[in-house]
Structures are given as structure tokens and as C-alpha cells.
Amino acid sequence: MTEAEREAIEARYYSYVIGDLEKAAEVYAVAIQNYPDSAGAYNHLANDEGELGRYEQSVQNFRKALLLDSSRASTYTNLAVGLLALNQVEEASAVLAEADKRGLQTDTLLQAHYWIAFLRNDEKEMERLVQRSSDLPGAQAILLSEQSNTAAYHGHTGPWMSCLCFLKWMC
Question: Using CA atoms, how far apart are residues 85 and 101, in angstroms rounded to an integer?
Fold first, then answer.
């Protein structure tokens, strides 16, 4: 087993088995020192930092990961979400535009686009994204869920609410 593999296993152990994100972040920080060209190490560290609420650090590390490997759609999504957590909507939108320009398409990129449309109160764009989701595997369920969350946010519970209450009662 290589040192990089050992570090990855150790960090995942702390993160997923023990639930100690601080310790996992420490291991990823060491991995970055040992392998400064590893986009994966920066990505993992940035994810843990975001989970810990350290959004500025998370965003910095996602940016470093993108400089090392601009082909990972998840890095664009996570960077955009980190920027949204910092209330930097326009910058998040620019990150997603760059992913679009590179031809990257995933369910989570579409979801991040939806969140930005929601924040902009752009109903037409939200509807366009829901329509587009049927062309992308796995995206339709996510976007329909976002659409129902949006309706509920605006107080539109409709007939599905009685179904939900019935199902809750049945369980």
C-alpha cells in the first residue's frame, strides 16, 4: 500500500466511520503536504472544511483543486455551493457557467443552477431547469424535489400535502 492510499483510507475512516471531520481534515492536510499536485486531496479537504462551516478555506481549496484538475464536475458544484454559503451568488453563477462551457453536466450541477435561479427568484429559469432534468440521468428526481420545496416555500402545498399527511399517518 502506498502512502497516498494509506492517507486516503485513514481520512475516510475518520470521516465516515468515526465521524471526526477535524481529524479527517488533518489527514488530508498532510496528504496535501506530501502530494501538493493531488486535486483529490484538495477536494476532500475542501469538502470536510465545508462540512465544518469553514467556507472561506473550503472555497480556497476547491479553487486549488480546479487549477490542478478542471475536469471534475463535482469540484465545480462544490465550489459553487461554498460560494453560495458565503452569499457570493454571482461568483457561484460564474463557476457554474465555466462548468457549462467545459461541457460538464451532472445532476448536482443542475441542482446548483436551480438554487441560483431560486435565489434570483427566476421562475422561468427554474422551470427550464426542471424540464432539462429529464435529459440527464438522476437529475429529474432531484429537480422535482427542488421544485416541490420551492412550492412549499411559497406556501403552495396543494393536494400532495394531504397525500403526505396520509402517508405519515400510515407509517
Answer: 23
Measured in degrees and rounded to the nearest 5, phi and psi for residue 75 equal -70, -40
Phi, psi values for residue 30, rounded to 5° = -65, -40
pLDDT in tens, 50-93: 999 999 999 999 999 999 999 999 999 999 999 999 999 999 99
Judge residue 106's burial from the number of C-beta atoms within 10 Å of its C-beta, 0-12 exposed, 13-18 middle, 19 or more buried: middle
The count of other CB atoms within 10 Å of the CB of residue 114 is 25
Q: Which cell is 132 given?
A: 432539462
pTM of the full predicted structure?
Answer: 0.86
Sign (positive or negative) of CA dihedral 155, 157, 162, 168: negative
Look at phi and psi of residue 87 and say left if phi exceeds 0, alpha if psi is from -120 to 50, else beta.
left
Cell of residue 28, nine digits: 488530508
The one-letter code for the residue type at 2 is T
Q: What is the DSSP letter of 17?
A: I
The total of other beta-carbon atoms located within 10 Å of residue 54's CB is: 16
Which grid coordinates are listed for 15? Answer: 470521516
| b/e sequence 122-155, b meaning 16+ C-beta within 10 Å | eeeebeebbebbeeeeebbebbeebbeebeeeee
